[in-house]
Amino acid sequence: MWEPVRGTLQWQSFPRAIGVELPYVVALLRNNYIEVHNIMDQQVVQSVQLSSKSRTISTGPGIKVQVAGLTEKLKWENVILESSNNNIDNNKTPQQSIIEQANFLATVPTRLIIAGSESVMALAATPLIVQVDSMLDANCVEEALEMAEQAISTATPENVHSERMRHEFNYIHQKSGFIYLGETFFDLAVSLFEKGKTDPRILIRLFPEMREVIGDDDPINMYSGVKAVADRLGSIEDIVSSSMIKNYDPHIKPDIDTSPATQELRKALITNAKDMLQKFLTWDRGQRKSTSNVLTKKDKVILKAVDNALLRLYTESDSEDLLRSLLESENECDLDLCKKVLEENEKFYPLSLLYKQRKEYRKTLEIWQRLIDQENSDLDFPDGLKQMADLLAKLDDQELVWECASWVIHKNEIIGAKIFILQDAKKPLLVDPSTVLQELRSVGKEGLKLFLEYLVDTRKSQEDEHHTEYVLLSIQDIKAESLKKETRLKFDALTKEFTEHKQSGQTYLSFLMNQPIEDSFSQARTRLILFLQSSNRYKADEVLLKLKEAEILKAELAVVYGKLEQHEIALKILINDLKDYRGGEIYCLQAGRVIGIRKGAPKKRASKKVDEKSLTTKRRTLFLTLLKVYLEMDNRDEMVDIVIHLLNTQAVYLDIMEVLSLLPEYWSIEMLNNFLVRSLRQSYHNYREGQILKGLCRGENLMIKYELSQAYQDIGPIIITQNVVCASCKKHISGAEFMRQPNNDIIHVQCDFDKSSRDNSLEIIDSTTTPSTSNIEESNLIPLSAV
What we know:
This protein is of the alpha+beta class. Among the domains are: 98 residues, no CATH class; 79 residues; 40 residues, no CATH class. It contains 34 helices and twelve strands. It has a four-stranded antiparallel beta sheet with strand order 1-2-3-4, with no helix packed on it. The longest helix has 43 residues. It is elongated. The C terminus is likely disordered. It comes from Diversispora epigaea.
């Protein structure tokens, strides 16, 4: 047997016909009654007895019924501000579109038709607003909202009432919000205003001091039924006064207006009301600014009022973070209106942000300068100079940039230098570098060094003065730092550590680079050494004199000596002073250009200008010099392992005879076994390779001689008689100094040379002269011997 389940509708008798029009189910019973159930709670909401017998209920296009009460409640009315009452004709009829919209919303379509033997009837559902509005008028807000929430789920696209119901829901929430507002339940009211999609300007106009943010010509439409409630409440001052009279009069003595307690309460309620407005405007702004929404003309008008109202609220409540966030983002604030508010409240930094957002950069910078100079007190201006530098780096106005940048340089030279460092490196500098350098020199050294580093490193300046000045300033800073006792002790400890770990294969440069980043002294030396190695633009003589003043900068000194081609001194510094044996080998391999290679740096191909043969020759010389430096050391016997390592690894660059002449006689052959074997193999390889090349050259010479012999045979002999004269000087040919030209003329070799010289001189005097044929075909001349 079947059992009813949850949500089942029940009738006393089996229905003759059933029709559905959400949220109602209508059944025609056999006793000629109509029963209407609410599908949400399955309760009977109405039972009607028909006067005539009906046969069925059909669902079709139905008919439209206009409910007069809906027209009055859902009709839009324009909210007129008091300040503009005199400028508006109150007798003017509503716009035709508003009337049509009201008529549309007041028209209730019905799809249920009851057909009988004598009549045809239509069933029209009572609109939700008619049911709820009476509850709201009776101040039963919670019950009305509960009924509305139940009906929301039925407002689906399939529901023919969905468009009207959407307006009904907005109407209900808005009217409920104003009822709660009249009771000063601000937190409850704001959530209802959000759900009812209330025009924020309607709430703004409740505050008389903010009405100026709303344009007089901006139409503000409001449901007629809601407007009646809002007009009855009046302004927020009226609402607060009414609430206090209702709740406290006549208990407060002497009266509500003069009692200190009620005055404080009034201020608290006004503050709560503004907090409500601020919360609602912030929510509304976020909804309209959503990336998924495209702003319409109406949205922009509303946003203008919202932004101006929020700026006033943030300013009055000292909400600095919110105020900055509003002004730093894209906004619709009115400049003149907001300027007045900000100046009255001495909010000069927010005013500068407003100017910045409007791209009035000169006014922005002028305010910032005054704030930094403390002409105006504004403690909320964080990192003023840094903000100026960031802004100036993005501007293209050369005059404005230099005017403010020079001012910043005198306030803080480092931040002043960063103005130009932060500019787009792909574009030319807005201000001539020499002008900037001159200004920085007049202030100090730190900003000057920073800007020079930017020029030579990022901008790739090719000016020798820039490179030299940067190096000299770096040396000066490192020298000053080295004079500190703490730095010197740390340097000695690092030197000792490097010496004790000399077998690790590290160069002195890589050892410095591996120091913690907190070790600023080692990091500064690393940057200087790398720059000295990579740059060829600084004046090495001047740098050398400066380095000699700093006794601890040995590695830097070795690099500069290498630039000056004084390789023996450089190697002695690396070996004797630094004990950097690995660095000495790299120095020789790199032909004296570097003392160490940065780990992870890309390997650069050798320049085409570097002759491989000359490079090999230079390496041979440097490795031989390195060997001599090793052998000249006082502890030569202790250097045996290092010398043997050098001989074994670099045998290709060391001549065996020169090496043997330098080594001590008491060193055994066994010690030199690897070196000797490799050297002999290399020597024999070079000998055999030379023999092969010699054989190839002999074969090529033999082929050329054969080709020359064939040419002589093809040309044949030339017989010189007493009648043969030179085609140039017309003198007789005597001796073997003559030649035959391609046109078979016989000419003295000297005459041909003189003629070529004259032709070349003419070409120099007149560059438009065409080279002579004899010059072009000179390579075709064949010298002959007299027969």
